[in-house]
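Notes from hallway chat w/ T.B., transcribed later so I don't forget. T.B. wanted the structure written out for a chain they're using in a teaching module, and asked if we could keep both sequence and structure tokens in one place. Agreed to drop them here.
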Amino acid sequence: MATGRLLGGAIVAGAAVAAYARWEASSYRLRRLSAQALPGDADPVRILHLSDLHMTPRRRRLQDWIAALAELRPNLVVVTGDFLGHVDAVDPVVKALDPLLTTAPGVFVLGSNDYYAPRPINPFQYFAGPSDLHPDRPELPWPELVSALTQRGWQHLPNARSTVHVGDLRVDVRGVDDPHIGRDDYALVAGSAESDSDFSLGVAHAPYLRVLDAMAADGVAVALAGHTHGGQVCLPGYGALVTNCDLDRRRARGLSTHVRPLMEFAQHDRNDMLLHVSGGLGTSPYAPVRFACPPEATLLTLLPTA
């Protein structure tokens, strides 16, 4: 009898945890952060950082929630990949982003889940280390997504650099294609910021150290990334269990400092690079749960240095 009661209690508790994890996966939050990174006489810059939407046509609540973010009136929108979670998700993504596309400049990179369709996996494999790209995953219509966003004025930065005007500031922006599947080629964007730029920004989907180290060595002021889902399943008081890349788990979500390689200190007078990793807004359709790690977008306000 006692064993039966214990088993029954465990089943009820497990069902309650599973139900909560499903609920939390759609409990969208806005994180507000600020950091000093701009020239001393610059006006603050509000960057809306979105990542890992993993959009499907049925995620209408997420579409509406993203659309409402236009009310924040950001100065710049940065999306760090994994827009898509379904072959028919391009139109829902564009619909969700449309109020932002028409009101703010934006830059973006793609992630592996924009290129390749999701598939069922053993969730415990995620805890064994960075996931591999299965060779038989069909492609998603990522060229259509890129075309839709660039036609509306946002810039795609797959191993590319550009200058974005944000108010009176000239922002030197460099992005790499997804390091998680080896599409990054930092050599194509390497080098110090343009001499007439006021601020430098780096963008990547997955925050692999080889990319972060290179950006920091080149004097990038702030780098933005996603991919980790903040750990997706975390332990209260402990945090992320894994990051699905080689970034340490303590930086799986939020703002941190990425120390420049020692050899570069003499070349740059600026502080170490700031790194913001988004916890992301979605999950794979085959693992629609989060625990102690709610989905989020971030409004990152950059302030002038003292």
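Follow-up for T.B.: The chain has one domain: 2-304. Might be a good example for the class.
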